[in-house]
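Researcher: Please predict.
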Amino acid sequence: MGGWSGGGVVPNIINYGWRLAGTGLAFACFFGGGLILAVTVFPLIASIQRNRARRVRATQIVIHRSFKFFVAMLEMLGIIKLDVTGVEVLRDGGGRLVIANHPTLLDVVILMSLIPRAQCIVKAELWRNRCLGGVVRWAGYIRNDLEPEALLGACRQAMAEGRDLIIFPEGTRSRPGEELQFRRGFANIALLAEAEIQLVTIDCRPIMLSKGDPWWKIPPRRSHFRVTAGERLDAANPLEYQYRSLAARQLVRRLQAYFTEQLELG
């Protein structure tokens, strides 16, 4: 039979098919599970716990543990491999601004599975999403269409309560091969709230679920996620500028250069 040089072809096809089916199952579990939680568990928590702050806290704990289970399921199915450097740094937060790059759709799920007390700023359209709208409403996440003062107030309150606020400075997922482009909004929040900033680098190779990719467009092999808790900054220090607008620009440039260098080294 002339040396079956393609001996790895059939196993590769089987592996690809398995991961494709597993990815479809994972998406179904994610959206279906979110809907089930929103109509069963979260209303039950609300009926037991009348205090809003405690109710939100309990709801966010459920989400954190659900995401831990979901990420473990992705690993078990062979869809991803996850390595975390500095996991204790992420677990032991208390009112920080967590700044991370955003290469894939799974970034927020992975971060929230690692950070027990996480708060998020979410797109307003998610509040109207059939499957996830109930989740973000019950969890008390922050809408991104709030007036600036209300948005800043919500961010300050979350960090004052000891929750870590996750922000992706790109505003949306980055496209593979393109330079990182950070918006200034996160820098204004950091400076006005005088927040402690924890930098987290997310590297995914081969890339999956990047901007514009449908769920069924999976890479030829399992994706390896590397999450690294890096530098910690103090935005209470106004950098070297008297004016906040200049300090915000400097912070954007500094972090954009930092993440670019970390990903190149990665």
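Model: The domain at 10-265 is CATH 3.40.1130 (Glycerol-3-phosphate (1)-acyltransferase).
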